[in-house]
Fold these 2 entries.
Entry 1:
Amino acid sequence: MSTRKDIKISPSILAADFVHMASELATIESAELVHVDVMDGHFVPNLTIGPPVVEAIKGAAKSPLDVHLMIESPETYLEHYIDAGADILGVHAEACPHLHGTLGQIRRIGEARVKDGKRTSPVRSCAVLNPSTPAEAVEHCLEEADQILVMTVNPGFGGQSFIEAMLPKIEKIRGWIEARGLEIDLQVDGGVKASNIASAAAAGANSFVAGTSVFIEEDRKKAIDELRKKAQAAVR
Ligand code: DX5
Ligand code: ZN
């Protein structure tokens, strides 16, 4: 559980070299999370990986897996991704007609796996919002979520520019989180880099997905440290 001062960096492996994934993962071990983008070619116009590859990544990653499902009918696949090793599982509000129920289902499957001895830690639920979806789409289900992800690009591809117009949405959701005394992580994803992370942190985000801005650097630990320091300085 966390507050706006608990800064977390979640490097997106979409920007990594997939042929050398184990050594790529070794370069980001200082990050709090590892962000894994799952795309189905329907919900977004791009296709990435499925459960077997997520399972392989889980076997090689040191930090918890922050799995972002950009797929239609995600409720059909929750068990597959949980059993593949997702520690945080994110579903899009636009893909979930029963978002409140789907978030609860993620937590319940995780609890059942802990009870069965199939995993040691619970699974954290995450609701994701496309840029065009208003904050109000998650207002009713904050109590069911462990993380809210505000997309700061239109999902589907890495390397796009951060949409500044998302800052008021971040502020609004952080306001609800604080007013209700919740300890949800508020995450941003898309175009996050050293020059804009402070504005997202000042608006209320505490968890930051960064693909290109981490993997483009030769020294990934330094890139992660720089992002974390800039975000921390914005909320000191
Ligand atoms: C976009 C993905 C992001 C992407 C971020 O659809 O959800 O996680 O990998 O990449 P950058 O940081 O390059 O925008
Ligand atoms: Zn993502």
Note: The chain has a mean pLDDT of 98.
Entry 2:
Amino acid sequence: MKSVRAFAPATVANVCCGFDILGFAVDHPGDEVKLTLRDDNLVQVVSIEGDEGRLPREAEKNTASVAVISFLKAIGSSQGVDIELKKKLPLGSGMGSSAASGVAALVAMNQLLGNPFTRAQLVPHAMEAERIACGSAHADNVAPSLLGGFALVREYQPLDIIKVDATETLFCSLVHPHLELKTEDSRKVLRHSISLRDTITQSGNIAGLMLGLTKPDYALIGRSLKDVIAEPIRAAFIPGFETMRKVALEAGALGFGISGSGPTVFALSETRSKAQTTASAVQVEFEKRQLKADVFVSKVNQRGAYIID
Ligand code: HSE
């Protein structure tokens, strides 16, 4: 039977000042999905590796199958498919784990059926995967995982996603402590209204970040990587967060913040060596607090998810 394998990268959502509206993709790590067409109409998750048995196998609950079901419904198809998932991203890490599985499955399904959708048209189906994973259909992980680079969600209704024409010379440090934080939980703690003062600060920073990325102006990127909405609340879940920011900036990073809903933290740097030094300095801070942490350093990824074979 016809099979396709696809890879979808991890993503950093929010990028400090773009809560729910901005994200970027990294080269690695990411999830891998293999889809095999069936000769009936069943959509089945037949195997998952790397999740220690923790992800749901039921088609209506797993992010990969939910995305595929939404896709098939949109084109009015009753095609069945077997889904094999290789989970390389840690669960509850803030690195876009649920998004990557849904995105890889969609890219593979699209290829199998002759690409009826553009990458941008796949976004709403990937958002269904997010809805099932955490109760909120945000697009700031799925859009960059599908499109690569920085993706801006200018509007949700109707959906308007813009790939930012950002500098390609930017390196990301991701430091993932061995802690787990469910997106659902770290969304529940957020305030539902924001003061005028914080709205002004956040708007200035997101506008500054967009300009800094496109010019490019690295000092402006650095000054704009600030969050007054989610980070002040979520930082409490990450031991040593403020010290880590200090050591990251001392190591030469442009800015530092929480990756998505955490607990992974990220930094952006102008060179790979600064990104590496930053990642090591932050890792040491986690270790000082008896937390093992994995480090991933990569260029901001430009191509997003891709077909392996
Ligand atoms: N924007 C989302 C949040 C991303 O911060 O809750 C979740 O990865």
Note: The pocket of L-homoserine is lined by residues 13-14, 19-20, 94, 138, 140-141, 183, 187, 230, 260-261 (CB under 6 Å).
